Amino acid sequence: MYAAGLIAAALQVLLVGPAPSSPPAPTATQVRxxxxxAWQGYRRYAWGHDDLDPLSRKPHDWYGVSLLMTPVDAYxxxxxxxxxxxxxxxxxxxxxRLSFDQDVSVQVFEVTIRLLGGLLSAYEMDxxxxxxxxxxxxxxxxxxxxxxxxxMPFRYVNLRTGATRDPVSNPAEIGTLMLEFGTLARLTGxxxxxxxxxxAAEQLFARRSPIGLVGSTIDVRTGAWxxxxxxxxxxxxxxxxxxLKSWRLFGxxxxxxxxxxxxxxxxxxxxxxxxGGLWYGQAxxxxxxxxxxxxxxxxxxxxxxxxxxxxxxxxxxxMASVYRxxxxxxxxxxxxxxxxxxxxxxxxxxxxPESLESAFYLYRLTGDARYRTMGAAMWTAIDRWTRTDAGFxxxxxxxxxxxxxxxxxxxxxxxxxxxxxLLAPAExxxxxxxxxxxxxxxxxxxx
Length: 447
Description:
- With 447 residues, the protein is of the alpha+beta class.
- Helices cover 50% and strands 14% of the residues.
- The protein has helices at 2-16, 28-45, 69-81, 84-97, 108-126, 129-142, 171-175, 178-188, 192-205, 237-250, 253-270, 302-308, 312-329, 354-366, 369-386, 410-423, and strands at residues 51-53, 58-60, 105-107, 156-158, 164-165, 168-169, 217-219, 225-227, 229-230, 271-274, 277-280, 282-284, 290-292, 294-296, 335-337, 342-343, 387-388, 391-392, 395-397, 402-403, 434-436, 442-444.
- Strands 3-4-5 form a three-stranded antiparallel β-sheet.
- A hairpin with a 5-residue loop joins strand 12 (282-284) and strand 13 (290-292).
- It is globular, with a radius of gyration of 22 Å.
């Protein structure tokens, strides 16, 4: 038997070569270098624009005019990484060119988490009052979005005229504004920002179903649900995140009560045990009946939130499922059918940060090195499969590794930041002194 084993091993080497050795674990220095690689691509091909399309090497602006999405999103990551020269150039660009006096209709949610959150974090970390002035100007221009009969915001608002559109919104876009507007209220001394965003969250909370779930879409004019499907993925995900984080950032007991009233039903009706693992799927908000078994890159935020809430046991089980999603395909797909363990209808990878975010939180909150190992493996896959000559590109299909011409600003704000913080010394950031908004902009805890 022993000789047969040696012969089999020798044949294996002759036929396919020696077993590949594991690549060395990445370091924070290597992630920092990856940030510089992507930033140099943006600097060369898209300076002064919102984003870089890394395959065509062309700039991309969201609304026809630039609002400097990537520079604002990237600035606090530069400060955390100690990239002083790049930060100085970026600060100069933002303060000289960024203007919100634009006749464009912007998505309230995206502009709030990226630009308002980024400017507030820049002010708190840098101290230059011009960052706060820009944030206050933007906040004032976003306020008309909340002028609906319910107080829940329209999805779009014109920055110059205040005209609104798109009344059918979702829990994430309604409930993911509190950290930014609350911080703006605290820093400017104008309570209207806090009360306006809080009222929107309370109005949504009041419209939960009798079993405690929210649906996918709701009309902010009437308060009537348009889609009764409940889940923890895109369109609802950060609703749960901000209930917990608003309590942690501001010490507001109303948000504690809303979180505690929401998390139990989420576990009862959306959690799903398959293949010995824990997943979260879809259910009808009124009955709790299972309607789908879809999980993906956006749902991967949940282990981080559960760990932050102190439920590290459940977070650990869900993180194991997240990591299985990564290792099954070599890199996570946007959607997975966990009942069959097959890629869903969105086969790409958009450079998303949520899995790395969860690995970071679990590592920092438990000290368990296996989460650092998980996150390091994720970053290694991202670096291997998405790097281009001009930056990093989303994948159109994780099975074929075909690239797509897109590098979102959140790659700088979140993906690179969480990878760096996961691998950097703990003293790089005091996790108990800040609360990250959903775009990973750190906001100071000052109750």
